Amino acid sequence: MPLTTPSLFPPASHVFSKFPSRRSVVHSTKGIVSCTQPLAAKCGIEVLEAGGNCADAAVAVDNVAAGLNMTEPCSTGIGGDMFCLFYDAKTKKISAMNGSGRSGNKCTLETIRKALGIKDGEFGKIPMSSVHAVSVPGAAAGWCDTVERFGSGKLSLAQILAPAIELGEKGFPVSEGVAYYWNESEAQIRGASPNGGEMLKKDPGAQNGVRAPRAGEIMKNPNLARTFRTLATEGKKGFYTGRVASELVKVVQDLGGFLELDDLAYHLEKGSEPVEPISLKFRGQNVRELLKDKILGGGEGQDVGLELWEHPPNGQGIVALIALGIIQELEAAGKIPTWSPADFNTAPYLHAIIEALRIAFADASWFVTDPNVTKVPTAGLIAQPYLAERAALFNPDQASQATDHGSPALQSSDTVYFAVSDSEGNAISFINSNYGGFGTCIVPQGCGFTLQNRAANFSLDATRPNVLEPRKRPYHTIIPAAVTNLHDSSLHSVFGVMGGFMQPQGHVQVLLGQIVGHLSPQQALDAPRVCIGSGMSQGGKGDLTVFIEEGMPDETVEGLRKLGHKVKVVRDMGRAQFGRGQIIRWSIDPVENVGVWSAGSDPRGDGGAYPL
User: pLDDT tens across 17-73, in order?
Assistant: First the structure.
């Protein structure tokens, strides 16, 4: 493992608790699992202890994503999609894999508009609860391909999925946050399909003998365990053909949908797609200040800074890159000062972030789509001249109104996010989602999972790049992130913030919290966040409300209002709007010259960071 990165914290400036939280940073020299569910984390730790690497463990935290499929079905599942970024310590290279599914071959714009009763001249949209929001699930193939491409080769898929299968068969106690969202979705689960009872707890005294489980109660899901056993013994073929595939297609067609067995076979043939990650080099004065404080490596004559890596379109990671690039251009042009830790979460600081995100969403919501079907000007959107052009729209004294997308030069969703590292120095940034909560809540008979509603993110406007077309991937909200050091390509961190269109907003705020605020991974996740309303729907021209999490200083809230922002403070369980994040950072003990993993886990979730 290359020992080239300095200590994580400056010697004298670390404060244990800057924000209301009782969590400490978790450290380990062997590896860490950081996720939203303790039982799912245990699955991942078991795989690491058995000799697997971080990629094996990620599929285990199902055993990372399958364990979460069992314990947090309100956010993720085998009926959804996944993406990942993998850092290989030997090559110092980050690889990306797209595990998202496509629309059905018969899902034409005309067919779906007619089925939804949308008239000519009306734009309309696919409702999140509609059967037409179901796209082919990509997660099952994604898990298998993750193990094959990035795994250690020491463990079989059956070994990796074993802990999750045991959770389903023997049952598990339901955590508080999950119980809350399960109860909120009970009515939709009951009504979405005839098989909804599979996702509820058996109780003879309840309506139809089933109900949502309560916090601390034991929940079993033997049907999902059976689905996992099929995946374990037959591989991804066991999901996209045979019993599971037949039941999936049957329930969709019985409800009026258009998916066919050929659509699942097509995804099996294509598999998950290896893609090139996209990145932005961040070299602002803030980064140079970190060098002075010995938080970052590098020295005289070396390229000092950080490189933020995101998954390319059809994912929305490019929003974070555009926003961060605009902020860098604003500093270079003198439109914002070089921020110090005292500026973190002040009104001027958040104003710049909010405005940069609005511009970024305006571009991404227009251009991001499936690049295999429609050309996406990815390189142009994050090129320095274009970022400088977009930064010129910023007014330091006034909030903007609706922002139109630009014209870059063309070049030739609820979710679970988790991060895992291992003793070899590898790390994986992994995200899996149903999109909205339990997705459509439609359950294939005897399978124990709900189908995602990702196709609701297609546009039904024929003029837009993200328009619905057959066998096309939609604009995707779920995004993993990673950061490397420019001077030697060593890993700085893997991280993510789940939660629909909040995700790139969280990426920018959590990363800048570490850069500007000099915050530890846990402090960066503890800190209150903002969420722009225009980022919560494609187009960037809708709700211009800035949602602010309780705990933000009063002077910051009032300062944003004086700048012309429409502000709404969000409290209690509504804080789920601001996402739940995980961070694992890499550093070196300066005396022992030993590498250390240091992790934080979002207090808005039920889980934590767990060392090997």
Answer: 566 666 889 999 999 999 877 777 787 888 899 899 999 888 877 444 444 556 567
**Residues with Cβ within 8 Å of residue 382, at least 6 apart in sequence:** 278, 280, 318, 321, 322, 325
pLDDT tier at 351, thresholds 50, 70, 90? very high
What whole-number distance in Å separates Cα of residue 230 and Cα of residue 243?
Answer: 9
Predicted confidence band at 295 (pLDDT cuts at 50, 70, 90)? low
CB 75 within 8 A of CB 416: yes
CA distances from 77 to 251, 432, 523 (A): 17, 7, 29
DSSP string, 123-188: -----TTSGGG-----HHHHHHHHHHHHS-SSS-HHHHHHHHHHHHHH-EEPPHHHHHHHHHTHHH
Count of CB atoms within 10 A of residue 44's CB? 34
CA distances from 184 to 178, 188, 214, 590 (A): 10, 9, 11, 49
The whole-number pLDDT of residue 581 equals 93
Tens digit of pLDDT for each residue in 542-556? Answer: 568 999 999 999 999
Report yes or no: 304 and 490 within 8 Å, Cβ to Cβ: no
- Nearest Cα neighbor of 537 from 466, 437, 468 is 466
Q: Name residue, tokens 């599914």.
A: 101
**How is the chain split into domains, by residue range?**
26-273+416-457, 275-414+477-611
Which of 406, 353, 315, 404 shows the shortest CA–CA distance to 532? 353
Helices 157-170, 222-234: axis angle to 10 degrees equals 170
Distance (Å, whole) CA 267 – CA 237: 10
pTM for the model stands at 0.91
pLDDT at 411 over 50: no
The DSSP bridge pattern shows strands 566-570 and 545-549 to be parallel
Tokens of 598: 């240091």
Helix (H) or strand (E) holding 293: none
Pairing relation of β-strands 32-35 and 415-421? antiparallel
Token pair 């734009």: residue: 123
200-227: average pLDDT: 93
Q: First-to-last CA distance in the chain?
A: 17
Residue that has been written with the tokens 């599971």 in this structure: 244
- Which stretches of 235-343 are DSSP H helices? 237-240, 242-254, 261-270, 285-292, 317-332
pLDDT recorded at residue 349: 98
The CATH topology of domain 275-414+477-611 is: Serum Albumin; Chain A, Domain 1 (1.10.246)
Q: Which residues contact 306 (CB under 8 A, 6 or more apart)?
A: 281, 282, 287, 296, 483, 484, 485, 486, 492, 515
Among left, alpha and beta (phi > 0; psi -120 to 50; other), residue 441 is left
Which residue(s) pair with 548 in the sheet?
530, 569
